[in-house]
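Quick check before the chapter quiz. The format below is the same one you will see on the exam, so make sure you can read both the input and the output lines.
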Amino acid sequence: MKKTINLLAMSSILMFASALKVNAETPSLENANNATEVKFTYSRDDLVPMPLPKIPINEETKLQETLTVEDLKKLASITEEQQWRELTKKVIRYQRQLLTNNKSISLNEAIELAIEKNPTIQENKYDVLASIWRIRAETRRWLPTIDLELDTVGYYKAQLYVNSRNPNNPNDGNGSAVSYSSNYFQGAPVASISWDAFDPERGPSIMIEKTAEQRDKILLNYSLRSLLVDVYQSFTEIEIILEQINAYSELVSLEIAIADAIFDVYENGLTSIAEVTKWRAQTYSTITQLIGYYQRLDNAYARFSRVIGSDEYFPAQPSDNEVYLEKWPLSLDESIAKAKKENERIKSAYLNSKISELKSQRLIDSYLPTVTLTASAGNYTINGVYEAPLYQSAPILPTTDQKTQNPIYQIYAGLTFEFDGGINLARAKAEEMNAKREKYSAVRISNETVESVRNSYNGLVNQTINLEATERSVENAAISLIVYKQRFIAGISDTTPFIQALNLYTTSIISRSTVKTNLIRDYVNLLRATATWPKSFEISLNQAIKRVMSSKN
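Here is the expected output.
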């Protein structure tokens, strides 16, 4: 949607400062609980006018006492300057390329989309599922093993006839020496069942996998919360940049109009070329800054696409005009205590230490004997003609069948003991060292988390105050800009104080943007460090976990 603006009317300039509003009581440096919600309000329609050279003039411009309507039309026109036209055309093409295919999305929709598509979440999900199956595998070591052997089962048919006569002298020798025929079925199936009544490594192995599952579930929670704050930060970054684009778009429109007017005055011989070039330099500088913000918006879109897990470019257009930062409910000491108790990275480090301790115990237990109970049953069977003799004088096949049954039943206990020369003992010591290292790692992470909580908490307090100060700065800078613009139009002053007022205004809106960015950063870092899930979001952490674990991805 295009939005017509009157660049030279006072109401237009006042609109500069209205892109962001803050409703807040005076916060206390001692207790952040006094800080109320911070509301960001921006207009999605105040983008670069389409096209920039066409600046509409409405009837309000007639109120200007020092210029006629025709003068104002000249002031707003840049058609006489080809360089402005070409440059603004490039800016417009860049803007259209960036904003044409915007996709409207709310913050909650972005969070749900990220939960569904982000690959990191899916990685952690399958880590949890793998841990569950490893627990089942180790637990099934309590079940007996069954072995069935059928190697000697088969049907056999053979005939052997050996003639002992001398081949060179048939009269030597007495004929057949060994001759027989076989035609029978043989089977010797053996079934056995074994159970390790005492397995010293079984218990530690099960506990290792259960602890690993607990750790992986905690890391899944951490990934979900990290994803939430990443989406929140990326989403608000887009909003802040859009606000900057709104402000700089109006500034560019104003500066182009003024630059063209100064050039018109110069052509009439009423000012020097220095004034023209000075203002042109200012205008080009602002255009450069505007293009820089478009580049930042492009980068923010790419970052947002990665965060939500989209393999395609996702130019998000926030569908809400307001985003709230919830009032932080805890004091500094309460925030630190919550972080120490609930931060998943700290918990994960302690669980890794516990896993190393269990691995060490399992390696030591491997030197204990394993007691195995075994029962087996077998039956050796022959059914048919088995090596029946053949006679030399008149060989015939015997017709006598042989049936043999030889069942065997066994029950016994076995004791297995293995000594590897101390290899596992050395490995156990290594795992003990790993356990100690993980404990110190947990302490380090805890200290880093406490530092992050302190910095973020104090930053949240300070940036809330700074935001109010920068808002006042923007408001006063806008008033100053109005005054010096009117003085310049009236011919009371040259461009120098006007440019100074303009620079003051641009500095103030940049400062406001920086404060907002820092405020969001401190807020999300506090959420991350204290393991907090904002209540304002439509989906809860438990719902998010259920959705992830039940997905078919």
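If your answer matched, good. The radius of gyration is 43 Å.
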